[in-house]
Amino acid sequence: MSTEEFKVTQTTGEAAGQQEASSPPPEKKKSRSRPVKVYLTVLFFVALLLLVMSFFMQQRSHQALTDLNESLSSQESLMDLQMEKQKLELKTGKLEKERDEAQSKLDQKEKEAQALEWLRQIEDATRKSYSRARELVEQFHESGLEEALPDESVVEGGSSPKETYWSIYSYLF
Questions:
Q1: For residues 30, 36, 39 and 40, what is the CA-based torsion angle, rounded to 10 degrees?
Q2: Which residue of 53, 103, 132, 154 could cross-link 125, Cys pair, CB 3.0 to 4.6 Å?
Q3: Read out DSSP for 35-81?
Q4: Environment class of residue 153 by beta-carbon count within 10 Å: exposed (0-12), middle (13-18) or buried (19+)?
């Protein structure tokens, strides 16, 4: 080889060496693509984490809505029960009023029965003993049952128990 050829070869070799030195080695190309891969992997995991968080937040929201619906449902049930309670209280009030009226009528009928029994005893005593009949009339008058005697006769055309009592009273006094 001649010196010129050697110089050319050397120059081309140096140029090629410089070219190799100026161009990055293939390992450096991998190191540039590696951060991109890491960045993409991190982004993928962040996106996955956001999806998982979104799923759990949606589940939590769904549970809250379910609880709210149950609460509303129980409130509606409570309102229905309160309305039913008010209806029952009104009905109870009516029934108590009817019971009181029935009790009043029963008391009146009991007083009427007592007054009629007094009248029967007075009539019987009038037939037997004038003084005994007078005592019974005075006791009957003190008992206050005179007003309980019926104004109407159960027998058509007959005198009422009240009229009978007053005729006996006028006879004795």
A1: -110
A2: 132
A3: HHHHHHHHHHHHHHHHHHHHHHHHHHHHHHHHHHHHHHHHHHHHHHH
A4: middle
Angle formed at CA 132 by CA 130 and CA 135, multiple of 5 degrees:
110
Q: Are 140 and 117 in contact (CB under 8 A)?
A: no
How much is the pLDDT for 172? 84
pLDDT digits (tens, 9 = 90+) for 52-97: 999 999 999 999 999 999 999 999 999 999 999 999 999 999 999 9
Q: Which of 136, 117, 140 is nearest to 128 (CA)?
A: 136
What gap in Å lies between CA 154 and CA 173, rounded to an integer? Answer: 27
**Dihedral Cα 41, 45, 51, 55, nearest 10 deg:** 150
Q: What are phi and psi of 12, to 5 degrees?
A: -65, -35
- Interval 145-160: pLDDT, tens: 888 999 888 888 888 8
Secondary structure (3-state) at 149: coil
